[in-house]
């Protein structure tokens, strides 16, 4: 798995923190890691972007950002409003391929969900994944509404013959409600793929050293961590239990 695409069922659901956790665990295993952010939107030039945030939390990764647009919009819309050239799937695939030649793992973090438009042709992150032949990791919310969004994302991946590596909950609440607890069992069924972790809410605010120390407890062995879905679900459903991530 030299290249892994990280997408989400929507925006602001924890993609960057999940990407950082995957990077941190890989680094701890002695692997070299690059993080590619094809299009960073909603930030001006001197603000910290997602790739740099991954490096801050995870450690010494190669952080690459292909383009930045100031409006917090879909990449194609933000590029058009900025009067700038958009970033297409060929450019994403080319950059990821070059990084893969020099690193053990390349994490490509998308913007928003899987089918957000990147250029005027309607190309998406899914098109870049297809060009790369790379599997896709989906980050999903914990609570009510996530099953439908996750199922739609998984269906879109299957329709394009793309491999869904699994699902990670991007922000597991400290006090999970009934929907969140039930979704631990229901998310894999909706996705048709395994649940590969749950990152606790607020993880991105941890000191980097603590983030790196705890990251493997949030991710399953398939992502080089030690998180176990069955144990996590049992503990989350215990009477009076709070978040256990």
Largest sheet: 7 strands, parallel
Residues in helices, as a percent range? 25-40%
Q: Order the strands across the largest sheet as they lie in space.
A: 3-2-4-1-5-6-7
Q: β content, as a range?
A: 15-25%
Radius of gyration, Cα only, in angstroms? Answer: 17 Å
Overall morphology: globular
How far from one another are the termini? Answer: 26 Å
Compute the number of helices.
9
Give the total of beta strands: 7
The ordered H/E elements are EHEHEHHEHEHEHEHH
What does this structure look like?
With 245 residues, the chain is an alpha/beta fold. The protein is 38% helix and 21% strand. The chain has 9 helices and 7 strands; from the N terminus they run E-H-E-H-E-H-H-E-H-E-H-E-H-E-H-H. It has helices at residues 15-28, 50-58, 75-82, 89-100, 125-132, 146-159, 178-191, 208-214, 229-236; strands at 3-8, 33-41, 62-69, 105-113, 136-140, 164-172, 195-200. Strands 3-2-4-1-5-6-7 form a 7-stranded parallel sheet, sandwiched between helices. Strand 5 (136-140), helix 6 and strand 6 (164-172) form a beta-alpha-beta unit. Helix 1 (15-28) runs parallel beside helix 2 (50-58) and helix 6 packs parallel to helix 7 (178-191). The longest helix has 14 residues, at 15-28. The radius of gyration is 17 Å and the shape is globular. The two termini are 26 Å apart. The model has no long low-confidence stretch (mean pLDDT 95).
Topology overview:
Blueprint: E1 3-8, H1 15-28, E2 33-41, H2 50-58, E3 62-69, H3 75-82, H4 89-100, E4 105-113, H5 125-132, E5 136-140, H6 146-159, E6 164-172, H7 178-191, E7 195-200, H8 208-214, H9 229-236
Parallel strand pairs: 1-4, 1-5, 2-3, 2-4, 5-6, 6-7
Helix pairs in contact: 1-2, 4-5, 6-7
């Amino acid at each position: 798995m030299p290249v892994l695409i990280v997408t989400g069922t929507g925006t602001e659901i924890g993609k960057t923190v999940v990407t950082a956790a995957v990077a941190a665990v890989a680094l701890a295993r002695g692997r070299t890691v690059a993080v590619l952010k094809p299009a960073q939107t909603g930030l001006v030039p001197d603000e910290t972007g997602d790739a740099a945030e991954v490096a801050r939390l995870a450690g010494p990764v190669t952080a690459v950002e292909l383009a930045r647009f100031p409006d917090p919009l879909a990449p194609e819309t933000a590029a058009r409003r900025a009067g700038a050239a958009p970033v297409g799937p060929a450019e994403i695939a080319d950059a990821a391929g070059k990084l893969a030649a020099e690193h053990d793992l390349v994490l490509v973090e998308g913007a928003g969900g899987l089918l957000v438009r990147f250029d005027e042709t309607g190309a998406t992150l899914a098109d870049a994944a297809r060009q790369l032949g790379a599997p896709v990791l989906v980050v999903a919310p914990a609570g009510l509404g996530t099953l439908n969004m996750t199922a739609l994302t998984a269906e879109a991946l299957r329709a394009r013959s793309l491999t869904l590596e699994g699902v990670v909950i991007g922000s597991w609440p400290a006090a999970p409600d009934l929907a969140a607890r039930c979704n631990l069992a229901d998310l894999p069924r909706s996705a048709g793929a395994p649940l590969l972790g749950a990152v606790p809410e607020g993880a991105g605010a941890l000191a980097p050293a603590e983030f790196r120390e705890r990251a493997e407890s949030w991710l399953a062995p398939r992502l080089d961590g030690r998180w176990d879905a069955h144990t996590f679900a049992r503990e989350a459903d215990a009477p009076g239990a709070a978040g256990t991530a």
